[in-house]
Design a protein that fits this description.
Helix content: over 70%
Distance between the termini: 54 Å
Strand content: under 5%
Shape: globular
Order of helices and strands: HHHEEHHHHHH
Length: 252
């Protein structure tokens, strides 16, 4: 008589959420890698003028998918998923910031909802209301390409970091990239965004020109919030790494 194999236990709610977030971050990493590859490969071959045609649509829809991150931050369940031991001191925020695990209570991830909304909505504004609405004035500008390079490089590292973290092991170089690249990429991206908003506002004419200028004015406090937020996250993570190294040295 053959013995029947016991069926595997059903996934718990925590495991389902973990698998979902792993899949979400993996797909996003691949999409942004595709955008990054298109931009950096095409610029030396065809110039800036062809970037929108090659990467415009995929950028719009990839960024639109990021609206899910607002829901991730706002809604959730009842449990928490611990991080890998090597990342136990790193704070978890947005699927779009740092991560060391999942916190399912007030949301799928521990993240400040206003910061999440600010980042997602500002990018949606760029891809739909600025570039898509005024392609002649914006899409052939070198600043459109530099914006995409800054966005995509940031996102490839960010989403890859989350995938590795959810699987339980984040290499040191990935943590370094995650918490140091933004020092350069954020200013490049923000400057590029501001130039594109200005170009679109000039092309729009009255009264939309004033709307564009108001948006540019909002970039000052908005950029400050996002930049200082990442600096604070970096400080927490680096402090945790230093504490971890000291503890490891003591135990050995």
């Amino acid at each position: 008589m053959t013995q029947e194999r016991a069926s595997p236990p059903p996934l718990t709610k925590t495991e389902i959420v973990k698998e979902y977030l792993t899949a979400y971050n993996s797909v996003c990493a691949l999409l942004w890698l595709s955008i990054f590859g298109r931009v950096v490969l095409l610029i030396p071959i065809t110039g800036y003028e062809s970037i929108y045609e090659a990467a415009g649509d995929i950028t719009k829809w990839t960024q639109t998918v990021a609206m899910l991150e607002i829901l991730h931050s706002a809604f959730g369940g009842l449990a928490s998923i611990p991080a890998s031991p090597s990342a136990s001191n790193a704070p978890l925020d947005l699927l779009s910031a740092s991560g060391n695990g999942l916190s399912i209570g007030t949301g799928l991830v521990r993240s400040p909802l206003p910061t999440t909304v600010l980042q997602v909505i500002s990018r949606l504004l760029l891809v739909w209301a600025v570039v898509d609405r005024f392609p002649v004035a914006t899409s052939t500008s070198p600043f459109y390409s530099t914006m995409l390079v800054a966005w995509s490089a940031t996102e490839v590292v960010r989403y890859s970091y989350f995938v590795l973290n959810l699987r339980g092991s984040v290499p040191g170089f990935m943590t370094w990239l995650r918490y140091n690249m933004f020092y350069v990429l954020y200013p490049v991206g923000i400057t590029s965004e501001c130039v594109l908003v200005w170009k679109a506002s000039e092309a729009a004419g009255e009264p939309w020109r004033w709307v564009g200028w108001i948006v540019l004015g909002l970039y000052v406090p908005g950029s400050y919030v996002l930049y200082t937020y990442m600096i604070a996250q970096r400080r927490k993570v680096m402090k945790g790494k230093q504490t971890e190294k000291r503890n490891r040295a003591v135990t050995h």
